[in-house]
Prior knowledge:
Layout: E1 2-7, E2 10-15, E3 26-31, E4 34-37, H1 51-77, H2 87-93, E5 99-103, H3 110-118, E6 122-129, H4 132-145, E7 151-155, H5 158-163, E8 174-177, H6 184-192, E9 202-208, E10 215-221, E11 226-232, H7 235-238, H8 243-250
Parallel strand pairs: 5-6, 5-8, 6-7, 8-11
Antiparallel strand pairs: 1-2, 2-3, 3-4, 9-10, 10-11
Organism: Onchocerca ochengi
Family: Belongs to the class I-like SAM-binding methyltransferase superfamily. Trm1 family.
Region (Disordered): 73-92
Amino acid sequence: MVDVRQENQVIVEQMTPVDDNDKNKSNFIVEGTAKLDISCPAAAFYNPAQQFNRDLTILVLQQFVEDRRKKLEEKKFNGQNGDAEPPAKRSRKLGDSEIRILDALSASGLRSIRFAKEVPFVAKIIANDFSEQAVSLINKNIEMNGVQNLVESRCGDAIDAMMSNRSFDKRFHAIDIDPYGSASMFLSSAVQAVTDEGFSNVISVANNLDEREYTCIIIRYSSNTSILMVTCTDMAVLCGNTPESCYNKYGSIGLRHKSCHEF
């Protein structure tokens, strides 16, 4: 028996074995091109309200990869940092445009799996989480989606994961941070763990996603070189509802203003 229902653009499948033993039921979430096992307790990490956030992250990463490849091709074709190269050599070097991604607080591994299946030219994705139970679920989902060649799970502190990759040859082209509450404690280590190849441009985007006031903050750091994506549930704090809390968390006070979401 298969019961499929559509809710918030997330497909939930309940598959019952022939013996109809409730203990053997397995549940799955299908989001984008990824399939997520939610049959174990660790699946409580899945938040369907954040699907739009994850969709937005995918779109931004896809555009980032495209922009980065164009920039690298332009540099090679124009002979920047040296003489122009033969077409064959330029083609071989386009592998430089493959990116490394860190999903610092991976939980179920859904973002990492969607990155692997929906974002082109990805060399490696690290799905990190502090919970051993979560990492066990990540490994299960990686295998179920067949992305073992791209996604690697790690169990550890998110800040340690970023600080241990500060050297130039280990830095990530994209880092995604999605904590519970404030993300301020992760920002210092995050900006040290993203690549910086000398392009200067910063773009900041904030979106009030729904009535729960989720916030998605996307920061372009060094245009066409690296990107830092941060999601947090602090929209009320950032909009000046509680200035004392905002100062304690971020060292600044948000303005209570009709354009507070844009700021």
